[in-house]
From TrEMBL:
Domain of life: Eukaryota
Pfam family, one: BPS1
GO biological process per UniProt: root development; shoot system development
Protein known as: Uncharacterized protein
InterPro entries named in the record: BPS1_pln (IPR004320)
Amino acid sequence: MSRSQDPQRPLFPFGNPIRMILPKTSNLSPRLLAILNSFEETMSERLKTLRPKDSENILSLSWMISALKSLSAIHNDVKSLITSLELAVSDWNEKWIDVYLDNSVKLLDVCIAFSSEISRLSQGHLFLKCSLHNLDCATPQQFTKARSSLDGWKQHVSSKNPRLQKCFGILDDLINTLDLPKIKNSSKGKVLMHAMYGVRVVTVFICGVIAAAFSCSAEKLSDLKAPETCLWAEAFTNLQVFGHGQIRNVLSTGKVTAINECYLVDASVMKLCRLTQHGDDTEAMRSSITDLREGVDRLSQRLDLLAKEVDVFFQILLTGRNALLGNIRIGSDFSNSMQKNNYAEGPTVR
């Protein structure tokens, strides 16, 4: 994955995949062209809804929830496109199947990494609940216990998740394999590969943003270029420019936690740490406790919602893989390699 300090490298080392998949000279039937255009226009509209307003923060759990909902919808749109194309699995090129299975298993691992990080943040939430319980008692002894819990939160939220770090290498691999083989003698195949390419670009972008937010590192971002031939290109570029720009600006300040909901909680924690040193039950103390309680409730609710969306996306990927594997002819030369890629787990922390 390209890093901000690295020289700019060409995104397509083997040529523009879109030019190979669907050159301008391709003669698609009006029906196939309508199917493709409908898919791309829908994806464009989904991307536009993810463009935050200038005052909103893309580094938030609420944006991640919306982004994963849109991503799940886009992956479901591909299933509908395949149905519309009436392209049976038996007509798929083995290379397409190989690419699909390889990418999907990598994305399943990304989902597991995200679930692990959500679980880690949820565990940190226990420190905050314990602290609030002790602060409600308003005694010097309980203030001491509260400070200990608040310190526990600060240490926990600043720690690193090894599972999360591994997913950046996975995203690297997905970017490095964005190029696709030239499709010959299959107009339906060209439409399918054209659509799947767009899905892969958007998937890598959204997963990259979430991973960068969780890791609090802008170096993990990769700027992808959308070919102008795609109807979703403008919406994607606008979203990426705004999103990556905002993330880099926020993370350049050296924040320990970049996610908005966590940052607000952390600000309340820091304020309460100062106030509890004196042990006074002041109005400022009570106001800060209220702020922390509201922030903790918001954080908990959104972590739960995000966990559900990660699971939905995981199940969509898994269902698609299983459906494809179930339709592969038994005894084909390709079946053994595909069986090694089979996945049966949910996005649970292992």
